[in-house]
Model the fold of this input.
Amino acid sequence: MEKLIYLDNAATTKTALEVVEAMLPFFTENYGNPSSVYGFAAANKEVITRQREIIAGALGAKANEIYFTAGGTESDNWALTAAAEAYADKGKHIITSKIEHHAVLHTCQYLEKRGYEVTYLDVDENGLVNPADVEAAIRPDTILVSIMFANNEIGTIEPVREIGEITKKKGVLFHTDAVQAFGQIPIQVDECGIDMLSASGHKLNGPKGIGFLYIRKGVKIRSFIHGGAQERKRRAGTENVPGIAGLGKAVERAVSTMDERAAKETELRDYLISRIESEIPYCRLNGDRKKRLPNNVNFSFQFIEGESLLIMLDMKGICASSGSACTSGSLDPSHVLLAIGLPHEIAHGSLRLTLGADTEKEDLDYVVDCLKEIVAQLRSMSPLYEDFMKKQKSGQ
Amino acid sequence: MYTEKVMDHFQHPRNVGEIENASGVGTVGNAKCGDIMRIYLDIDENQIIRDVKFKTFGCGAAVATSSMATELVKGKNIHEAMQVTNKAVMEALDGLPPVKVHCSLLAEEAIHAALWDYAEKNGIKIEGLTKPKSDIHEGEEEEDEEY
Done:
């Protein structure tokens, strides 16, 4: 096959070479357990502390507010269930949005089965949560608001700062799933009034299986994984030292290249959007045009289905993803696309392209050329397109 | 996830298109669930399917099952075409992933719907043929997810 064009960086990213290099010594050389007494192993404790400082620095947080986890999903699960448990005395009401990642939504459903009440806020047609809706939903028994920093499917960046002001004023905990945003756009926890923040390593050219949860000092949540004194007794288990070393390097790298990368990706993103919009009829850009992650492009193409589109792109060496039901094995298309008001049949024909640091303009030109051809081909065999064209003709 | 045969029929679908003044046309499925199939039959005076075309909106398996179903009924008489079940379509494709089995049902339904249309137009009865459901997903139950 010709060159692989990888445009699924929201799913995962290539681990950077420097990251791998930073991890390697901790497999075969400095493999000691950081909790051991002897110097050989205890040195790894220092390594962990250094990475904690790097990550804290990226968020304007303190090092002892960063807790390493096995990834974004664990962080979301921990934040929600532990906060629900710890603050149950105050109340059992949680507020979130309809477009959260399943790591949050399924955890909310789990809590609902255990006596908690969850309000799922609507979003507008661009996927934005209205801060006024958050304020209106807060009740005396509300203990937690969980709204994502940026959406994984459509790239919309939520008004986190405004929401943080409200939760602070009302004395309600604020958690944000920043798995897609962290390392892509600047985040300062104090400025945004964030009490807890989930992030993951493999979305920013770091390793898989490592992430963290930021927990503001004073937030009284307990351990989720029991069995040891690691992570200030809040997350037991021998530390994933290679993973932590890799995550620290990835964060350092992401922060130092953020401005330049975001500028380049934004330009390429807008180029891709404008080419698709001007060259492929009957399509729709999903997500906010401006309040949008620099690397996210999401389109719906009428009259075609997403999985077919993905397979055909794959045959051209292009990796992408879709909100189509067929890619998830259920009959319903993406909950995010339905929440922004797309009818089912249009949501089925969606395509997400997420750029990376090494995406080039020529790659995107090739993608648009292939896409034009594939969309036309799938439409030529679509009964929906046939009906639409007949209607157009008879209407004239 | 797909067999070579499915990929072949998806990449090179047989009998895509429309037939003008077809002897029978059937459309089944539901855009809401992400798949719609339309089959056109051209049937001669000896009740032999002379030609068949299809159009499908759906996933790779939906396209491949439509393509295979048209291949299986082409040249057969209308009674033989009734024997082309979803199982036959699946077997001819060397199998489908479990979540895609409904696509083969849809292909069977689409053939039946086109035959029904033909039978109605010609005032004949085809043994074993019943009026097609307007929505293939009718009566399907959602799986109960556990958390």
